[in-house]
Structures are given as structure tokens and as C-alpha cells.
């Protein structure tokens, strides 16, 4: 059975072959992080709205119909960019304004009955570097 859901305030992209779903408050930096990944060779899936589907126990993300390839750059307007129509989601990034504590190891969150690892990340000029590091290395403590 295939479950489909649409998430507002969610952005999706691919970096280093990993599918990333980003959530967070409006203006927190979801689009900025996605654009930083895009400028580093990543692929855009969807901005400020994302459809996800469970296909045989794997979660896939898709752009929202009629908004494919549209990116809203705050204060600058809406731009048309190259995009991918589908990619497996590997991790859920929760963007935060600040973090006073670390997320416990192996934290998972369900999307359409599929559990994804969660990374809590503060958005700043080094957020993409930290994200890429976290995607490449296993946490031991």
C-alpha cells in the first residue's frame, strides 16, 4: 500500500546522494540551506512544501504538484530552478534558531509510517558543512 502526505514548511533536497527533508519555522533558513546545497552540487526536490510517499517501506519525496522547480528567495521573489521529481528521503533535519541541548543518539521520526533519523541543526553559515559531516559519519556517543 502506498501512503502519501503533503507537508507545508518542509523543503527537500539531495546532497552527497542523501535525501534530506528539512522542517522548521517560517524564515528559519530552510530555503537558504537548500540553496547552499544546490550551489555545492546538490539537487532540489521541493521548496516550502513537499509531498512524501511510502513505497514498499521506503520514503520518497516529491515536489508539490504545480510548484515544481519554484523557489521562493525571501525578499527577492520566486525563481524557476532545475529540480528532481523524486528521491528517497534518508534523514529529517529540524532547523532551529538555537540549540541548548543535543538530540539523543538514534532519534527517529515517522513520515508515512517510515522512520527517518532526525538531525537537529542550528542554521548559520556553517550549517551545510555540519550537515554534510553528520551525513558521512556515525555518531558513537
Rounded to an integer in angstroms, the radius of gyration calculated over CA atoms is: 14 Å
The helix fraction, in percent, is: 10-25%
Strand percentage, roughly?
over 45%
Corresponding CATH superfamily? P-loop containing nucleotide triphosphate hydrolases
Which secondary-structure class do the elements indicate?
Answer: mainly beta
CATH top level is Alpha Beta
The ordered H/E elements are: EEEHEEEEEEEEEH
Number of domains: 1
**Strand element count:** 12
Low-pLDDT runs: none
Shape type = globular
Largest β sheet strand count, sense and barrel closure: 6 strands, mixed
Oligomer: single chain
Mean pLDDT: 89
Strands of the widest sheet, in order across it, are: 4-2-3-10-12-11
Level-2 CATH architecture: 3-Layer(aba) Sandwich
Write the layout of secondary structure elements.
Elements: E1 3-8, E2 10-15, E3 18-23, H1 30-39, E4 43-46, E5 49-55, E6 58-63, E7 70-73, E8 77-80, E9 87-88, E10 91-96, E11 108-111, E12 114-122, H2 127-136
Parallel strand pairs: 3-10, 10-12
Antiparallel strand pairs: 1-5, 2-3, 2-4, 5-6, 6-9, 7-8, 11-12
Give the key terms.
single chain, 141 residues, Rossmann fold, six-stranded mixed β-sheet, four-stranded antiparallel β-sheet, 12 strands, 14% helix, 45% strand, globular
Structure, described:
The chain has 141 residues and is mainly β. The protein has one domain: Rossmann fold (3-Layer(aba) Sandwich), CATH 3.40.50. Helices cover 14% and strands 45% of the residues. Strand 11 (108-111) and strand 12 (114-122) form a beta hairpin. The chain is globular.
